[in-house]
Amino acid sequence: MHWARTTNPISKELREHHWACVIASRALELRSGGGEDLGRLQFSDVSAVVDAFRTARGRRGEVHSSATQIKRAAQFFNLLDFGRREGVLDGLSPRFVRHPDHHTIKKVDENDEEIGKVIPEAVVRQLDQHVHLLGKDFPYGELPPEAVNALLRTAYVVLRDTGRRPAEVAGLDLDCLEFDNGEYQLIWHNMKGRRRRRRLPVHQQTVDAIKDWQEIRAGLDLPDNSAEHLFPAITNRYQHLDTGYLSRFIRSWADSIPVLDSEELGRDGTPLPFDRTKIFPYAFRHTFCQRYADAGVPLHVLQALMDHRSANTTAAYYQVSKKMKREAVDTLRVLAVDRQGNSAPMGSATAYEVRSVAVPWGNCVEPSNVKAGGNACPIRFQCSGCGSYRPDPSHLPAIEDQVRSLKANLELARAMGAADFTIKGMEGEIADYLNVIKKMKAKMESMPDEERHEVEEASKILRRLRAGSAASSPVALPMPVVRAAEETGA
Ligand code: SF4
Prior knowledge:
The chain is mainly α and 490 residues long. It has helices at 2-7, 11-29, 43-55, 66-85, 110-113, 121-128, 145-162, 166-170, 204-218, 243-256, 283-294, 299-306, 311-315, 322-333, 349-354, 367-371, 396-415, 420-445, 449-472, 484-488, and strands at residues 177-180, 183-190, 195-201, 261-265, 271-273, 357-359, 362-364, 389-390.
């Protein structure tokens, strides 16, 4: 409260900081004493809070990107710093601070996070049938409800048909259409890439929607500051429609649609409900890219349409086809190794997919764990010491990450004076992973350039697929050790 009163943040900032506090409070509530005694908070409480930011979801249950996780954690800890400097947190323990080696949140490759955000075309068709509900009971400044609906209908059509980012749609110029050589182009500004006045060919349907809105807009009393923008702001404080508003409009619209079916059928053969949290402005950009990818548009054309500098970024926007996955599996299955790094190829692509399951640092062929989708490891994911471990080159970055994290834990265990058998166990685990890395890398280095490139590309595809499935279900993490006394409650 003191921070808000003193710094007078804009409402978006206030909302975000508040949400960061909610996440941290919920994590502390689960700690012994419920985090109530500020003077007793310590290192492990900070760890619990940071873990909560790592797994936090938005208010509507959406998975946070790593960038958002990092931002929310920073907002919470900056708030504490502010409170300390202002002398309003004198009772807070000095041990309740972030340690740079232990309390950072890793930034995940943006491309790996972009998978799985496509809205299926069948769902888009259902959305199209409910555009009359857009902005219903959702006031926008002084605009009459029909004008709010017209504004939002146009914004939706532009999001859907052009695949521009929400901020680019919200910030379109009033004269954003150009007629050239018998066709219309949308003039837009690539804010992220800082490239202005880009051109994108648009269909007549999109042009009609924009022109209809321009006509309605001309008869409205709007804030002066919005004079040059297609979608006006509520007040003169902003120049155009705010992306936060756009997001809330789209989400509340999705919630207001009575029935929204997914493409998946339930046991009784009727469609299952579509997960409405997947409908948000940015998802239309992915949907746009997928639409063209499905139509067989080559990657370099897609890259130009998306205005990406790198084709890798474009490729991450659409889902990998079954054919691409099959080819990637075929390339990598023969390169699988066992826990000692010795060649242990899978007999077929089917065997790779059916008899093994992805666990955090490789594939696992232990039957009961495979059956449980990788969530029932009998030995707490100590893969490097397990006869069922079958990593392949697509797992190399994950294994290297694991080695880094094990080394940090080992340092900590030594500093804490942990027992010899604990230290030896950790050293052995690290040594075995390093051996697997060494042998896999040696094998790849011995390949001709073309073959190695093929393996690297196949690895990227499988990693993207795994990242996609991890986004919709929890990552399999080592299970906690439950001592018998805790199990029985004794
Ligand atoms: S330790 Fe790893 S490879 Fe072994 S059963 Fe568990 S998950 Fe599978």
